[in-house]
Amino acid sequence: MIGGNIANLLQEASKIKEAMEKIGAGLPAGISIAELEAKINALKTSTKAVDAINAERTQMVNVKADDVKTLNEYLIIIRLAIKSLCGLNSSEYEMVGGTRASERKKPVRKPKPQA
C-alpha cells in the first residue's frame, strides 16, 4: 500500500478497531486492540513527518527557483553592460556568451506568393 490512500487505510483501521472492541475476547492470540492502535499511531506519526519534510522541500525548491531567476537576470545585466561598453561585435561580448553581430545569421526573405 506504499503510496496508496493513507486516509482510507486509517479509516478502515478505525472501523476494524471498533469492530474488535465489540467482538471482545474472542480474538486469536497475537491480535490485539493495543497493537492495532500502536500501528495506527505509528502511521499517523510517520505521515506527519513526511508531510513536514515535503513542505520544507517545497519551500527550498521555491527558494532555488528564485535564486536561478536572480542569477539569470544578473547575467543578462552583465552581458548588456559588456555589450554597451565593448560593442556587439567585440570578442569580449563573445567571451561572456553573446553572439557577435558578424556571426549572426542574416534573415532570408520569403518570396510573396503570387495571387
Walk me through the structure.
This protein is an all-alpha fold and 115 residues long. Helices cover 67% and strands 0% of the residues. It contains three helices and no strands. It has helices at residues 6-23, 33-86, 91-95. The longest helix is centred in the middle third of the chain and has 54 residues, at 33-86. The radius of gyration is 33 Å and the shape is elongated. 1% of the residues are buried.
Task: Report a brief summary of the structure.
The protein has helices spanning 6-23, 33-86, 91-95. It has 115 residues and is mainly alpha-helical.
Low-confidence segments, given as residue ranges, are: none
- Largest sheet descriptor: none
Rg over alpha carbons: 33 Å
- Report the count of strand segments: 0
Mean pLDDT equals: 90
N-end to C-end Cα span: 67 Å
- Residues in β-strands, percent: under 5%
Count of helices? 3
Helix and strand composition category:
mainly alpha
Shape: elongated
Query: What level of helicity do the residues show?
Result: 55-70%
- SSE run: HHH
Which features characterize this protein?
elongated, mainly alpha, 115 residues
Structural topology:
Blueprint: H1 6-23, H2 33-86, H3 91-95
